[in-house]
Amino acid sequence: MGILTLLRDKTEPKSKPEPRKKSGGDGVRPRRARTSQAVSTRTKGKTVPPAHRRPELLVITGLSGSGKGSVLKALEDLGFYSVDNLPVDLIPKFAELTCENPAVQAAALVVDIREGESLKRFPEVLAGIRKHVDAKLLFLEADESALVRRFSETRRPHPLGGDRSIIRSIRAEKSQLASIRAMADLTINTSKFNVHELREFVGERFRGKRDESKTLIYVTSFGYRNGIPADSDLVFDVRFLPNPNYVPRFKKLTGRHPEVARYIRSFPQTVEFIQRISDLLVYLLPHYIHEGKSYLTIAFGCTGGQHRSVMMADRIRKNLIEAGFVAKVNHRDIAVKKRS
Question: Are the C-beta atoms of 332 and 222 separated by less than 8 Å?
């Protein structure tokens, strides 16, 4: 269904009602169908008109490559009336039509940097339509490294391309959208979502009450010599544990190797740390989720990110899964050739 359908629904004449049937031989008069337009309430002799319907309108914007198209398709699957790249000047008319068409209960549209100079009028337009519809603004973004990778994989040019490099275009777009981002009701960083995870997240978020057990937990290992992961919510330092790097037979292995993991776990402080951290996270995570966290990143760091942090991330992930959480693991500083 396209926007032309909405226009046609508004302009086409309504069909004539069928003649009212007379009551049958049983003396029962047929009841007139009640509609939201026809129903009114009488209070002390005064007629109170029905409340004006305020449909839900979700406006999606954000950085190019952040997944706006995938989110729009997911919403369409949920029954949202969806329009991509609607000109800013048509948004008020679109909002008006959604109010007047009873078939539209919820609508979603994408507006982004492709609008060019017209995008500068968007804040004023959004403020105007919020007076008539329940309009929410969803802003999608992703880390620079993730955006660069996505443009490289798809081999599509950035909308602000021209003579700029991808990274310069991304930074220019961030700058131009900064004021709109500040208006957002919800901001989602899609760096760690693949297409399927993003669609699943949107389904859970906008279908109704989220299942807290499905909130995604990322457990990351890293080496302090390469810096702390920027997206970490919780960081734990495991450099106090004995270092397998000083054991010759373990030096070229990683914490995913059974012998290395067994060696690290052989120390009582390791066992106690795993138990205490697992208990802490099982206590904390429901509270983070209750506050609206859609996903959480827990990072464990050692010196090089090869042994202790790797073993710890794998073990904690396993404990979280056993506790009923959905958890994934990522070993940032393990070379591909070393992964077991």
Answer: yes
